[in-house]
Design a protein that fits this description.
TIM Barrel, alpha/beta, globular
Length: about 240
């Protein structure tokens, strides 16, 4: 049985085409800018469900998938923290001709290579560009992220890269140069985007009684973020 926080239908930004986005419950990281802290606790979630039950919910949207090139996206929380359930669900999706995407921070409990063999697109969120910053921002060890990176490099799935840019933390050219070094570890990427840090989820922390560590940091300027995004794309294009 899998623990699921919520299911969003008709998603348009979490992979190609129209998607059903399944938000898994539970995450080991504690990212300072996370806007879904309600997905952290493994004992939470709105439902427990079997892989076949989840597939049956998703199958209803196959006409939309076929028309748009869409499918299902496993997000979270962190889906890689429920590897057995995730693998079972992805296998069923592939048996039923449903395109699969994995939206992840690359920080899970293993079985990466087998999971990725049933994944069409990986949407990889690079939380920080160096080990010290990663530890401070997420509470996790970047070594686990690099294990996942190695598995992605061996897989045949398409790769999308995302990076949340936070003012005063990664909004400078040195950080972007380090980001490029990480991306260049990968064989190729199909899409790259910088997501400007925002404060829309801050009220959740008050409701959950969790201290919000970035409360004094303003939202990231979208135009500045776009400038850095173009800078990274240029580096990747001109220095493959």
């Amino acid at each position: 049985m899998g623990k699921i926080h919520s299911i969003e239908t008709m998603g348009l930004v979490d992979g190609p085409g129209i998607r059903v986005v399944v938000f898994f419950q539970g995450c080991k990281l504690r990212c300072a800018f996370c806007h879904n802290p309600d997905t952290w606790n493994f004992s939470g979630g709105s439902m427990e469900i079997s892989p076949i039950e989840l597939l049956n919910r998703v199958k209803k949207f196959k006409p939309y998938f076929k028309a748009s090139g869409g499918g299902v996206t496993c997000s979270g929380g962190e889906p890689l923290m429920q590897p057995e359930f995730l693998l079972g669900f992805l296998k069923l999706c592939k048996e039923n001709g449903i395109n699969t995407a994995l939206d992840t921070a690359g920080f899970g409990q293993g079985d990466y290579e087998e999971i990725l063999s049933y994944t069409d697109t990986v949407i990889l969120d690079i939380k920080h560009v160096n080990e010290n910053g990663y530890k401070t921002l997420t509470g996790g060890d970047m070594g686990e992220f690099y294990k996942f990176l190695q598995a992605v490099n061996k897989a045949k799935c398409k790769i999308w890269i995302r990076h949340v840019m936070v003012p005063g933390i990664t909004d400078d050219y040195e950080a972007m140069d380090d980001l490029v070094k990480i991306i260049k570890r990968l064989r190729s990427i199909e899409k790259f985007e910088i997501l400007p840090y925002h404060t829309l989820g801050n009220t959740k922390y008050d409701k959950l009684g969790i201290q919000y560590r970035l409360k004094d940091i303003p939202p990231m300027d979208k135009e500045v973020a776009l400038k850095f995004q173009d800078y990274v794309k240029d580096l990747l294009k001109n220095n493959p």
